[in-house]
Structures are given as C-alpha cells and as structure tokens.
TrEMBL record, chains A, B:
The keyword Transferase does not apply. The lineage of its organism: Archaea, Methanobacteriati, Methanobacteriota, Stenosarchaea group, Halobacteria. It comes from the Archaea. Belongs to the peptidase M24B family. InterPro entries: Creatin/AminoP/Spt16_N, Creatinase/aminopeptidase-like, Creatinase_N, Pept_M24, Peptidase_M24B, Peptidase_M24B_aminopep-P_CS. This is M24 family metallopeptidase.
Amino acid sequence: MDPDLSDLDAFLDEQDLDGYLVDADSTDSNQYYLSGFDAPDPFVTLYDGEVRLLFHRSLEYGRARREARAATVERSIDYGYGEYSEEYDPHEASYRVLADFLDAYDVDSVAVPPRFPVHTADGLRDLGVSVTADRDETVSAIRAVKTDEEIDHVREAQKANEAAMHAAEDLIANADVRDGTLYHEGEPLTSEAVKTEIEVTLLRHGCALDETIVACGADAADPHERGSGPLAADEPVIVDIFPQNKATKYHADMTRTFCKGEPTETVREWYDLTEEAYRAALDAVEPGATGADVHDAACDVYEEAGEPTLRSDEAAETGFIHSTGHGVGLDVHEGPSLAPSGGELEPGHVITIEPGLYDPAVGGVRIEDLVVVTEGGYENLTDYPVELTL
Amino acid sequence: MDPDLSDLDAFLDEQDLDGYLVDADSTDSNQYYLSGFDAPDPFVTLYDGEVRLLFHRSLEYGRARREARAATVERSIDYGYGEYSEEYDPHEASYRVLADFLDAYDVDSVAVPPRFPVHTADGLRDLGVSVTADRDETVSAIRAVKTDEEIDHVREAQKANEAAMHAAEDLIANADVRDGTLYHEGEPLTSEAVKTEIEVTLLRHGCALDETIVACGADAADPHERGSGPLAADEPVIVDIFPQNKATKYHADMTRTFCKGEPTETVREWYDLTEEAYRAALDAVEPGATGADVHDAACDVYEEAGEPTLRSDEAAETGFIHSTGHGVGLDVHEGPSLAPSGGELEPGHVITIEPGLYDPAVGGVRIEDLVVVTEGGYENLTDYPVELTL
C-alpha cells in the first residue's frame, strides 16, 4: 500500500521543516506505515518528500533493499560509522552518522513523533539539527483514515475474531454446571482454557494477539483485567478479543459478555442498558460528528438511568469508567478517540463502539463492535449476535 | 520479584540526580521491571529510592493499587489534570501534572532511558525540570543480570521452546518427498504450516510469540527473513523460535537447522563449521571474558576456514554477518552483547550463542543455544540435539 502523505507534506511546509524523522523498530506503527518495512530492531526513516531508510545493522540491509517502499536504503557504514566509532562511543558515533545522513539530503530541521527517543533528539540537537516533537501526531492522524485496502485488512482480522468468539462462546455454552462452576470434559472450565482456545483459533486464521480478556465475576469489574481461574455459572463473563493479522499487521477488536445460566436482575438490567448505550452511540456515528458526541450519546443513556460515568464524576471507579471507543488499525488503540477530547469523525475512520458497566460487587458487562465511518454514516464490520445468556 | 536497584541508587548518587523516570507502557521492559505492573497504555514510573506510579487513566488505577510493586500509586486528576486541561492542551496539561508530581517528591532532576519520549522530556524541561538521557542504560544493565527466579522463568520458556522445536522437527522429518518438495498429509508442507504448529504448541505451553522463523533455501540466507511457501528436500531449513512466557514475560531463544534428505557438500561443511564455531564460542563463556572475546572465538573458526565475517569485512553481505549472541530476558534482544562492543560477562547473564553462515546461492545455517553465565563458566539451558539431517 502506498500511503497518501500529502497531509505530511502540508504539515512540513506549514511548519517550514525539512523532514519528518522516525527512529524505531517496526512495532512502532508510524515507522511501519512510513517505511513499509518490518524489522525487529530500530532503524531510521526520513521523509523529505521521499522515504529514505538508514540501517545501523547490515543484517537488515539486503532485505530492506528488496522489500521496503523507499527511494533510498543505506547503512551506517556508508556514512563512516566505522571511523566515528574509533573516535566516539557507539551512541555519539550513531548521532554523527545520522547528522551526516540528514545533511546528505539537505535536511537541517525535522519534526519527530512525540515518543521519538530523547537521546537521538538530544544527540542531533548537539550537532546543530533542529528537532521538534510533533505534538499533533501528524502521521498518526494520517493513519487514522484508512484506505479501502486497509479496511479490507481490518475486515479480514475481524472475521478471524468472529471465529475465535464463536469458539469461546461454544465452550461456555456447552459447559456443564456443578456447584456453580462451569466444567468442560470433567475439568473446571477456566479463563485460561478459553483464552487458549481463542488464541489457537486466531493462529489458525493467520492472526497473532497481544492478550485476550476472558474475565468473570470480580475480575470482569476491571476493564483491563485479563481474568484467571474457573468460570462461574450465573455470572457475566466478558470476552474481549483484539487480534492482529500477522501478514497485514492490521487489528480487529470485539467484545461480548456471556452468562451461562441465570444472570441476576442487576446484570440483566446492566446488559440491556449497555445494549441501549451501544445502539445510541452507533446511531451517533457519522462524518462531522465528533468523538465527543458519540461518547456523550453513551453517557446520556447511562446517566439517565442513574449510573455513574467519568463524565459525571472524573474520579468514578464504578459505572462507565472508560471512553466509548478508539481507532483500530496497525495499533489496536489509535486515533480517533471517542472521548471528551475526541475530534471530528471522517469517512475511513475505523473505530470501536464499546460501552460497559463495572462494579466489583456485581462484575462487568461490555458490548463492543468495530465499525468504519462512511460518507452516509457507518458500516458495521462486526457480524456477531448481541446476546447475554447461553 | 523485588529487583536489586542498588546500582540505580549508586548511579543517581554519582550523577547527583534526584530520580529515574520512565514514561511507557509495560511492553517497555524497563517500565515492567521497575514498576512490576502490566498495562497496555503508557504510564509514569518514578524511582527516587521508592517506586512511585502515576496513571493518566483512572482505568488502571484500581488494579495498580492492588498489583503494582510500588510505594505510591496516584492519578493525573490527583494533581489537577482537570483544571490544567481547561487552560492548556492535553499534552501541556499532562506535562504540568508530571512536573507537580515530581515536585511533590522534591525531584528537580531526572535521568531517563535513552528511548524516553522526547515530547515528555521537552515538556518537563520547559517547566524547569532537568532531564538527562541515561546513555549507559543503567536499568537495562541491571536487568541483564538475572536472579535465580528470573533464570527459572527463562528455563520454563525454553522448555516450551523445546516442545515447539520437536513439533517442527517431527513435521519436517515425517514429511513425504515428491519432486524435491516436502509434503504433509498430501499437501505441500509450507513454512507457514510449520510456524502454525510451532505457535500452537507454544500457546499450549503458556507462551506467546512475536514471530517465528522457518526459512528454507534463499529465504534462509537472510538471518531475519521469516520464510514462506513450500519447504524443499535436500536444503537446509532454519527454525528459530523465541517465545515469551505469558505469565512471567520472560523469553527463550533457540535455533536449529534441519535438512530432510541429502544436504549438498557445501551445506554439510557449513554445518560442521558452524557447530565448531558454536562450541568454540561456548568454550569462551565465563565470568570476566568479554562479549567481544566470545564473538572472536566464533569469528576465528570461520575466518580460519576462509569464510567472510563482519569482523574481517564490515560490509560483508555473505558469511557470518551478525553477532554471536545477545542477552535474553524480558526482551528477546537485550544486554549483554556478544559482539565487538560486548563488555565483561557476569554470573547471571543469560545469553544466546548463535553463529551461522549465509549466502543466497547456498541458503543459511545457524545453531543457537541459550546459556546462563555461572561462577564456574556457564550452564546450558538448552536440551536439544545438534543434528542437521533428518
């Protein structure tokens, strides 16, 4: 995929800067997006109207020349790293190489992503290069608007996600119940066992994963708790799966909450309310609406029902205690944000809609779909029923 | 595990700095090591003799109070984030919160890891905090020396690695050969299929993985090429597995090279030479020897046999074109380095020994074990035969 970097050109022009510089391995999505190259060790990408790569290690050089979407691919040794390292420590030698590399392309001033390494920035500054942190995250903002090809990558990852969710749901639905605990083939059915089933299913669909959440009872009351131990009957189990396709590197994201047996009245009410908040948030998604508008739609539902939210109390620890959603792409959490600070939605934004309620005394409930903003509103990339009880 | 941070105390003392500051999510191993807390979004850890955490999002706050190994756990809103964000943009508001947090502990000057985010460093500097990049990577150096508990974590990950390697070897050994291609159950046996088998085995042993290398023929000539497509008979297949235990977060690392059928004479010679280099490097491992010494031992073997190395030619693209090894722990690549710049080995260093030869005209051969430096030399944490042909 050739990204459209015209917004980056405009930014550099406007700021009167010569280039945009990234120093990171390709798990940094700005690096992977700009360079089109996948490497486990940090390398440098300069954008000065062309994409130019600089490798410290010869190891990646040959593959980069074959694979990377770049006008030039060079090595530290091409800029005298060997000589510099006789005179200076390895860090200082690499700053000097980098300054010479920039100089070769007449680049005296660069913007860098906010999380660019401070030692490289300081090293370059000491050598007279102007380095400015791009607090507006121009490349991240470009990444947030997906091309049709990128949307297809997300769609493919979400298909794998649906297969994994079905595998998890089947395990829970078909579990035996003894003394309030779920059993599978005579053994207690644990969070860990369901996660393994999910992850094996994802692998067989070409996806890897950072983590998976299968959280029951008090575990589920903490939105980022991964969950552990035997699953209980009659309690909500939050299953949140966010795989990454290994070939394309694009993510998907989906959550369902299941209950094997009879949920308490409170859990049933929470589920229905969360489904209502989820539908209200979905209804608010359209180009021109802001992330804050969508978040407000979910908060309105909860607050009208008397549930606490972070909007009504910034220190709330129970209730709706996270944002309504986030962008999904090369990163599982990226722009835009569906939160009080969330800006205008644009066609091509791929976002989650994921309201939920949490309280250690009750457990947790969350429903999450993945949608893409379109000219006319949104397309839901998720094809999975919204049902609590199994 | 309570890390021994006395070297960090000494460093801060020597540099006359008030604290050490990390701003990262827990995939940053310095962050995980210092904070003892696992979170997917960036948070701040200050070490000023005590470990102190600051969370931007309330979301992680409750869990951090329960789980983190920290003297204090606080939130941005405790330092007036709400008020600041009415006056300033979200970035500036968070710098002001962070400066107030440091001030609350009388911290005016901090060292930060070299890859600390430049925007945070600049934001703090503008508010009068002194921020110095710690080019010596003090925390990484502390992490490089493992406790017995950490070594056990690596050992456990290596057991999973051995199980996965056996699964891969079995697939290749039991493959049928037709027209020079390996077949499994009537289908061509691909690199991808072997990787899936490896990764499913790892998952079932509690490990995750970033990537796996199963590279045959010309693919194998590039040490970082992951490999793809049908595997060939009579050619070397490099299998390099580097899992991470999901519970402990510690890695293992191992490589074997297999050949189903009859290797060419060159491949057989390369294999024997690489086994010789591997044994020479292992023999050189002991406390007081340097990483450079170990690397030299491997280079000597190759160069005496007339093979090019990066030591003899820094621009070499065939031959022995990487270092002899690296540390393994929370990161799969960490200190110490077994390369020309590699410093003194100490008991507790966990390192790979992994010489190899590469040439697109021949393919690649690599043998890699994982060992821990001990008072008396080293203990090999790898229990897997060294054999080329299957």
